[in-house]
Amino acid sequence: MSETGELTYRRVHHATPELLFDCMTTPEHLTHFWGPAGTTTPIDGIVADPRPGGIFQTTMVNDADGGTYTMRAVYVEVRRPDLLEWVEPGVEGGMRTTITFVDLHDGRTEVITHQTNVPAAYLDAAARAGFATSLDRFDAYLAGLGRSTECR
Predict the structure, then answer these.
(1) Interval 112-124: pLDDT, tens
(2) What are the residue ranges spanned by the domains of the chain?
(3) Would you list the DSSP string of 40-102?
(4) CATH number 2.40.400.10 given to 4-37+77-145
(5) 28-40 pLDDT tens trace
(6) Tens of pLDDT, residues 9-21
């Protein structure tokens, strides 16, 4: 087994925890921002059954060469609008992702993404930068929704 580590990403969004939670658990929204820059995630490649034991699966397509990467996970804990947690059992070490939505009570929410059992390949600077671009895509998607309390 290779060495694993952990990562934490923090981002403040101008949206309610409910809106952010719903966008992170609904294929109609995930398709607009899931994955790093240079990829798309077609809606027919997304399965989200947000309940303990439910499947979360996405297939990202590389815009340049059409190559695909499928992420397969199982939800461990789901508490709308505060917490999402899943495990990717097929990733060495069983990578675990925990997303906490913290209401800042001013129309903003801090989203904390904490990952444990992260394989070494995901820990390098390029992989972390790619993840950051997916957060940027999420920001852009939310901006397009406006300050609505519902995903469209």
Answers:
(1) 999 999 998 889 9
(2) 4-37+77-145
(3) E--GGGEEE--STT-EEEEEEEETTT--EEEEEEEEEEEETTTEEEEEETTSTT-EEEEEEEE
(4) no
(5) 999 999 999 999 9
(6) 999 999 999 999 9
